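User: Can you help me understand a structure? I only have the sequence.
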Amino acid sequence: MAEAVLVKNEFKTKYILRGLACTSCAAKIEKAVQELPYVVEAELNFAVSTIIIKGSERTKNMDKELQFIANKIENGVKVEKEGKRTLRQENNTSKKERAKDNTDITKKSNYQYRFWSGVGIFVLALIFLQVPILTNGLSRFTFYLKYLLFGSSYLLIGSPVLIAAFKNIKRGQVFDENFLMSIATLGAFAIQEFPEGVAVMLFYMVGEMFQEKAVDRSRRSIKDLMDIRPDYANLKWGEETIKVAPEDVQTGDIIVIKPGERVPLDGKVLKGSSLVDTSALTGESVPRRVKSGEEILSGMINKVGLLTVKVNKEYNQSTVAQILDLVENATAKKAAIEKFITKFSRYYTPVVVYSALAIAILPPLFLTGASFSDWVYRSLIFLVVSCPCALVVSIPLGFFGGIGRASRQGILVKGGNYLEALNDVKQIVFDKTGTLTKGEFVVSKIKPYNGHSKDELLTKAAYAESHSTHPIAKSIIEACEYKIDNNKIEDYQEFSGRGIKAVIDGQEVLVGNNKLMDQEQIDYQEVTEEATEATIVYIAIDNVYAGYITIADHLKDDSLKAIKALKQAGIREITMFTGDRENVARKIAKRLGLDNYYAELLPAQKVEKVEELLKKQDKKDKLIFVGDGINDAPVLARSDIGVAMGGLGSDAAIEAADVVLMTDEPSKLVTAINTAHKTRQIIWQNIIFALGIKGIVLIMGALGIATMWEAVFADAGVALLAVLNAMRISRNP
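Assistant: Let's start by predicting it. Here is the structure, written out as tokens:
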């Protein structure tokens, strides 16, 4: 789903829907909010009970309108605007939530007492019917006793359903599971099928209880995933340390992180050293060592030492905040199958209800000998089966489970649509530097010409590269033993994809590739005999060729394994893009077993090549581009799925890509694709299982073969099994 782009006067706000428990109600709330005149887009995330609203203009009444919609559709839902909170407010909220939890526990306890009382009366009623001496002795009153015993047990067991159905009808929300179950069971009483009427309500409620527990468990697993959110920060205040909410800490503040505490904000270690657990961010179990002068990221756990850290990002810009935002909002971007099921359920239930009405009325009118009570019974089975909650609940939970699983593996997927798209990938394009190779360049050889020395060649190149942030430039600067005096640099000009021209101590220096030499018409000796997979940097001084420097980069240990695994996963074509020369690209492609490569590409040419590859592939197939997320932003955006490699702490990577691999391992892409396959497999299992069972029971019910017992299984039983099946994906891999 394409995101709505906000213009100047538009806004984006997130609300928390506390107490949201009904999936069909959630879909109705989202639809009702979407229809508000000032709303551009509304995305409701049932898994974490939030709704994000993008609007054309702010209105003071929006909070009230949202609450009105919630009250109309699902009573008891409390709408709260998400915002910055102090530690005191968090504590007060926790007290309110604990009080509400206590109230809910009391209500549940009272209902459980009524429920088990109803079950007891139901069992007594069944026993009563099986004892002839009782029924014969009280034959005159048997009918009334049945009504009394079964009726009281029915009301005790099914009161929540009946009350909810009545309230929803008053609000105009007719076609929901409460209404269907109420009509079906009351209809059973109307045709004097007392035991089945109570039994259907009993097993429906049992199924609902198990389903509620399964959904709660799934939501708890989501909350466990969100446990990377820090609770507090130890702010250094003079000689004292005070505990504050992470949102209250400013850039430049000093915080203290004790052993066992979670790092609350991104910063630089000023004092101390320790091992930190990065598993919540990267999925890696091996702790990483940090010491004074190094960066540390929020969400990590300090294992042993005391650390003093200077904060360099406010909480809402920190790594943990960005990850949480991505994970929480991921299921708001619905996959195509989710959109279809939501739309399908809107038409499916009313069609089945009217079909049930037709089954109850038409056959007795047109078929000779057709019993009205028999066809009403069949229609009641239709009503029980018709609720599509098995699909409406399990499919979003399945996608969220897949996204959560990927997150624990150090893979951030920005939406269910991207997770689904990973199943259709047939082409993968890798950028070379920093993706397949380590990106850790080292000067391996210096070859001077025309009377220049190695020392002079390296020094001139270092001065020319001093303003560049490219890894090759950094390797040349690090190799130079002299401190660079920027006053000696009189002029500086950078040519994208070619190199640099600078005036240093009055001399014009060119540092770059062969394209720069050709552009400036330098008579140089092109290096073609290099046996190593090295990058060649040519240097010219005052338009005279001065020599070259070779810069070595090495393949990642993980690259070869990743390419083999991707081939085994069914990827048809794997290509490499690089701005490096043909000789280097050819050797790396051969060593890795790549299908194709393109060398000496400028940034704009990478986009052109991707467009060419996209035109050649089938419409249903998808193309992935894997890059560093900083220099490759245009091509990441142009590909079907942009994957940023090594996104840990990189704002640009997280912003530019659809999928972010938080470590520098190309094999994580294989993990992401396998997780997508597993998610799709489970979701289609649920779709086929739910629709198959419901379809069979609907046909059996219409033919008079099925009873209410099969109908209850086709509704509550199938929904429970579908939810349990969806939860499998969220288990630790």
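Now, to help you interpret it: The chain is about 50% helix and 20% strand. The longest helix spans residues 87-130. Let me know which part you'd like to focus on.
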